[in-house]
Amino acid sequence: MRLWLLAERYAVCTAPHPLEPGPGAMAAVLRDADGCTWVGPETAAPQAATCRGGWRVLAVEGPLDFGLTGVLAALTAPLAEAEVPVFALSTWSTDFLLVPAERLEAARAALTAAGHVLTDAEDAG
Q1: CA neighbours closer than 13 Å in the CB half-sphere of residue 69
Q2: In whole angstroms, how far apart are CA 37 and each of 73, 107, 114, 122?
Q3: At 38, which helix (H) or strand (E)?
Q4: What is the pLDDT of residues 54-82, one digit of tens each?
Q5: How far is residue 112's CA from residue 98's CA, in Å, rounded to a whole number?
Q6: Is 111 helix (H, G, I), strand (E, B) or coil?
Q7: pTM confidence score
Q8: How would DSSP label each residue in 59-76?
């Protein structure tokens, strides 16, 4: 699979109250019984939330067919083997893997060794 490394650093935040989606190439707001989770560029992280920054986003080249199986497994298995933590999100058209910035090179090496292609988004030309 081809993955694109988004340029910005991202944050994952939580709050007990609703949050608005942020700007950027990828942003998400999810809600569960414990509150809201916000994902977006670190520079736009909501002030009234608990946040963890320093994530880098790997976007799977899409669109992905809903009938595909094992996409996340094929990506997360080599990352787990390399002990790279992952925060995964999916949209209608593709999947996103957030990895800690300090583990980005380990993630890149593990995914490349597994046969995936990782390209910086700026290189998309």
Answers
A1: 0
A2: 23, 24, 31, 28
A3: strand 35-41
A4: 999 999 877 666 676 568 889 999 999 99
A5: 16
A6: helix
A7: 0.89
A8: EEPSPPPTT--SHHHHHH
Residue 34 CA from chain centroid, whole number: 21
Q: What is the DSSP letter of 108?
A: H
The contacts of residue 45 (CB under 8 Å, 6+ apart) are 11, 13, 22, 38, 51, 53
Q: How far apart are CA 101 and CA 45, in angstroms?
A: 17
Question: Model confidence over 114-124: pLDDT tens digits?
Answer: 999 999 986 54
CB 18 within 8 A of CB 36: yes
Residue 69, Cβ density class (10 Å: 0-12 exposed, 13-18 middle, ≥19 buried): exposed
